[in-house]
Amino acid sequence: MDFDLRLVRYFTVVAEHGNFHRAAAELLIAQPSLSRQIQRLEQRLGARLLDRTKHGSRLTEAGRAFLPEAEALLRSAELAAAKARAAAVPAAITIGYAGGLIVTPAVRELRSRHPDVQVHTLHLDWSDVHPALLDHRVDAVIAREPFPAGRLRVTILYSEPRVLLVPRAHRLAGKESVTLDDFADDPLVRYADAAYDAFWRIDPRPDGRPAPDGPLVEAHADKLEAIADGRALALAPAGGGNITLRHDLAAIPVEGIEPCKVVIVTRAGERGRLVTAFRESARSSSHRSRF
User: Fold this and answer.
1) Which residue, among 109, 35, 48, 112, has the nearest Cα to 291 in the 3D structure?
2) Which residue, of 85, 86, 194, 277, has the greatest Cβ tally within 10 A?
3) Closest CA to 196 of 130, 134, 255
4) Count of domains in the chain?
5) Are 150 and 39 members of one domain?
């Protein structure tokens, strides 16, 4: 039978609500039009599916028999469409990266596997990871947690120790390593995002005390300037390349605190072949070397 899936969906929504008015509101169509569409479906099937009542509608015997099959039909159509989208190879993919992470090995591997595809890269601020993916400016991102992860799929690639950034003249500069107790009273630069701030300042501390406040910074360069100027210290990823251009700063490994995680992030439910291929390339690259 040649089904119109739109009519089948209309029927399942009316069956769910038991009311044409509420179903029409959900479907964003006029109630008289919805009634006509259901009648078309009933005529096509040769059976009445719904009885209209003063209080709404109820399924007939035929309707109760048809409903589970209708729902299965819609699920099957949705699955078929998803598989078709997943099998289609797009002509281009854009890879985002944040926090000084180097994605060259994974991107090079993806290009070698798909020489006919345009692979672009785009540097992002950590706060732009979430919106850039949902806005489809990028298709995958290599970044460090934390960041908002709603509607995203996050895959951990590896963990990375954290270091303490201090000015060269600081009392801790030159030490092989430090613990949280060594800088418990030193102010740390602050960040606008609450989750990011809590992680990178270890706020509150394990004993419940708040972390001493340093200046609020927005840009990476401003953070480094605040440290070099002696106004605050900062925790940073060990592989972040934070001081390569600042000879007046020192990075000291911190023992006894949770490491940060380097992750690959994609949109939840994204099954495109190139996105899957890049995820595999990122994993294999992370096993051979660190970003």
Assistant:
1) 109
2) 277
3) 130
4) 3
5) no
